[in-house]
């Protein structure tokens, strides 16, 4: 296990992750495209392993998957940092671009590939899933 740290653009919100990601994915759903004007790289980490300092604002909406997604961001600079799905409250999505070392993780799958724009550069070495992939298995405690 390695510790990872990150922050928002203005530095008002910092975070520490004390567990390795359960999965790292490149998402091409329309919501992620609207957030980033592109696909987003997301690390799924155990919610209990995420320590946040600073105040975050949130916005909840229904995703294409049908799940309620609460996205959390810095209210000062607007950096999108985290998301939680009603389907998997034990996991938190961390936007990899906000990590101090985004190269410390690598995506394994292009998800919602069916929604990617025609110009998208999908890494052909990654698994490609047309829509929502199967949830990662829960890691045993201890």
UniProtKB/TrEMBL annotation:
Segment forming the signal sequence: none
Coiled-coil region(s): none
GO terms, molecular function: carbon-sulfur lyase activity; metal ion binding
Keywords, alphabetical: Lyase, Metal-binding, Zinc
Top-level taxon in the UniProt lineage: Bacteria
Database matches in SUPFAM superfamilies: Mss4-like
Record carries keyword Signal: no
Record carries keyword Metal-binding: yes
InterPro entries in alphabetical order: CENP-V/GFA, Mss4-like_sf
Annotated CENP-V/GFA domain residues: 4-120
Family according to the record: Belongs to the Gfa family.
PANTHER family on file: CENP-V_GFA DOMAIN-CONTAINING PROTEIN-RELATED, GFA DOMAIN-CONTAINING PROTEIN
Name of the featured protein: GFA family protein
């Amino acid at each position: 296990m390695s510790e990872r740290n990150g922050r928002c653009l203005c530095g008002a919100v910092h975070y520490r992750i004390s567990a390795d990601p359960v999965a790292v994915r490149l998402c091409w759903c329309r919501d992620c495209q609207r957030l980033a004007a592109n696909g987003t790289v997301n690390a799924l980490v155990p919610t209990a392993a995420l320590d946040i300092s600073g105040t975050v604002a949130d916005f909840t909406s229904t995703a294409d998957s049908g799940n309620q997604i609460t996205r959390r961001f810095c209210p000062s600079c607007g950096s999108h940092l985290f998301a939680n799905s009603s389907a998997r409250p034990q996991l938190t999505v961390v936007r990899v671009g906000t990590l101090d070392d985004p190269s410390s993780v690598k995506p394994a799958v292009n998800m919602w590939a069916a929604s990617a724009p025609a110009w998208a550069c999908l890494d052909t070495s990654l698994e490609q899933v047309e829509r929502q992939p199967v949830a990662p298995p829960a890691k045993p405690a201890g």
